[in-house]
Amino acid sequence: MKIFLSFAAVVAVAVAVPANYEPIHVGPALVDTYEPIHVGPALVDTYEPIHVGPALVDTYEPIQVGPALVDTYEPIHVGPALVDVDNYEPISVGPAIVDTPTTQSTPLVQIILNINQATTASAVETPAYNPQPAEIVEKPVAPTPVIVASPIIPAPVVTLPEILN
After folding, report:
1. Which of 78-92, 111-125, 127-141 has the lowest mean pLDDT?
2. In angstroms, rounded to a whole number, what is the distance separating the alpha carbons of residues 11 and 3?
3. Are 90 and 129 in contact (CB under 8 A)?
4. Cβ(88)–Cβ(132) under 8 Å?
5. Which segments of the chain does DSSP mark as H helices, in order?
6. Per-residue pLDDT averaged across 102-121, rounded?
7. Under a CB-based contact definition with an 8 Å cutoff, are residues 89 and 129 in contact?
């Protein structure tokens, strides 16, 4: 039965024909107007030479390939900034304090403070600046003893008899 179906499929493919069949002309193509095909080099009306060599420049400027030469030398400091104690001026990192406030007709932000009058706030003291380096005293750390338990020795595996499984 399989052989019969395979044979029927091969016969069906062999006799199949497309619905719109047009014969193919195998001979040379027929063209109404004749135009010759040029196979040789192209012919150009105006001749412009092609430069293959190095570029020619009117004004010569030498190209510097070596390191850059600088007239004034300024060393680059990569370490921390060193400040003289005599010229030291502290930098304020807090909020800016303005002597004369500006007047505005309407406030942009309205802050309502509800403060209990019974408690008084103490003034915060700023630490004095000491330009001398601080002394750091290192204390040795005593190691703590480690308790090691007795080692666990693995025992060989014993298989149970079939009756117990």
Report:
1. 111-125
2. 12
3. yes
4. no
5. 2-14
6. 68
7. no
Size of the chain in residues: 165
- Work out the pLDDT band at 104, boundaries 50, 70, 90: low
Q: Would you call 2 helix, strand, or coil by DSSP?
A: helix
Residues 61-89 as b or e (16 or more Cβ within 10 Å = b): eeeeeeeeeeeeeeeeeeeeeeeeeeeee
Among the residue ranges 45-49, 66-70, 111-115, 139-143, the one predicted with the least confidence is: 111-115
131 and 85 in contact (C-beta within 8 Å)? yes
Q: Which two tokens stand for residue 117?
A: 């009058």
Sign of CA dihedral 14, 18, 21, 24: negative
126 vs 93: CA distance, rounded Å = 13
Those residues whose C-beta lies under 8 Å from the C-beta of residue 131, and which sit 6 or more positions away, are 85, 88
